[in-house]
Amino acid sequence: MTSTVAAYTCPLWHPSALFAGQYTPGWSEYELMRGARPRFAGHRQPRQPLLGALDESRPETWETYNKLAADHGVDVLIWDWYWLDDGPALHEALDDGFLRAGGPPQTFSIAWINHHWMTLFPTTLRDRTGLEQAFHAPDSEPDIWRGWSLIASRYFHHPHFWRIDGEPVFVIWDVGRIVQHHGLDTTRALIARLREHARALGHPGVHLHANITMALWRAGNDPVKATAGLDALGFDSCGLYNPLLSVTPPAEGAPTYSGLARRATDELHPALLEAAPVPFWPAASPGWDTTPRMPYPQPGDDVHRHPDQGLLLVEGGTPAEFEDLVKASLALARRNPEDHRVVTIGCFNEWTEGQYLLPDVDHGYGMLRALSRARGREDHRIYHASTAGDSNLPDE
């Protein structure tokens, strides 16, 4: 059985009700992307989409993106899904764009993203060490259940929803946060209730995947502590959002893509495969750079690190380096049982975090082609109406 590649997908690139209220109608994080500036010589900012700043709440955008994903080895898109201010937020890209797109369908899943929502526009920073909090995380038991039951009712039945052993795959971003607020027994009961609800809707159950990025951070990158008890809570698998963030960077100097990727594949991923009580899915990422969301540094600041927000950027991240990371992750995934030979990628489209597969003006289609090569597929040449007949599209 071949491995499955599932890429996280963030819904920040379209006008939304949330952004209209938070900033102004029509605003999206493309504004942050356009406003980014380099912080040192050679810093790759601003990032520029080769296909343009496409509105992801429009079906035609996903007709293009779905073909790019499928042609280059992305099997599943895991949609980040938010419940903020007493209801769904940023869902327009999924509901109005992706799910209404024509053309070949793309398999998808949902990730419950239960963190606070911040005001990221840098001029609203109250001080240089913290971000203004706009909405609280959906921490209450009623909010959790209303969100989970809506997701199950709205999406699990979709014929192209991702399933493992017939069960729809549902990702929880930070299960530790739920445990902190409600304890182990209530968390376990919520998960059991979701399974019962899914069965009542006609599904055999739910495949629950724990994203352990925050758990690793709280555990000081200790794989045993970060994964302890996941089986008892009812999880079926676990994984990471971006492996570059889950290894300890060097105390000084510039964190490099090649260095962090090597530590992830040589040390962290094998340790998690060994320690986790449920199958661990290795992860890959094309990069990391959150500087568009942060104020410009002052003299004496560490341009790579933030005193409160952690690692700001990782230098490097070429298609060749990404290809090596994907190959290593796929090799590790083959140690799992057949249904768990999965590699996740953070992320398909997160421009303001510097982690995206979509083509840009620097690498062209390089990241997509790197993924295709890592999976042993033909190196595709992509043509669009605006570039028809152009055989010199940038590759790397």
Structure description:
This protein has 396 residues and is of the alpha/beta class. The chain has 12 helices and 17 strands. Helix 11 (319-333) packs parallel to helix 12 (366-374). It is globular and about 55 Å long.
Output the keywords.
single chain; 396 residues; alpha/beta; TIM Barrel; eleven-stranded mixed beta sheet; disordered C terminus
Beta-strand percentage range: 15-25%
- Biggest beta sheet attributes: 11 strands, mixed
Figure out the total of helices: 12
Q: Tell me the domain tally.
A: 1
Helix content: 25-40%
Judging by the overall fold, what is the CATH architecture? Answer: Alpha-Beta Barrel
CATH topology: TIM Barrel
List low-pLDDT spans.
380-394
SSE map:
Elements: E1 4-9, H1 17-22, H2 30-35, H3 59-71, E2 76-83, E3 88-89, H4 92-97, E4 107-112, E5 117-119, E6 132-135, H5 141-155, E7 163-164, E8 167-172, H6 175-200, E9 207-211, H7 213-218, H8 223-227, H9 230-233, E10 237-239, H10 257-275, E11 280-281, E12 283-284, E13 305-306, E14 310-311, H11 319-333, E15 342-345, E16 349-350, E17 355-356, H12 366-374
Parallel strand pairs: 1-2, 1-15, 2-4, 4-8, 8-9, 9-10, 10-11, 12-15
Antiparallel strand pairs: 2-3, 5-6, 7-8, 13-14, 16-17
Helix pairs in contact: 5-6, 10-11, 11-12
Briefly summarize what is shown:
With 396 residues, the chain is an alpha/beta fold. It contains 12 helices and 17 strands.
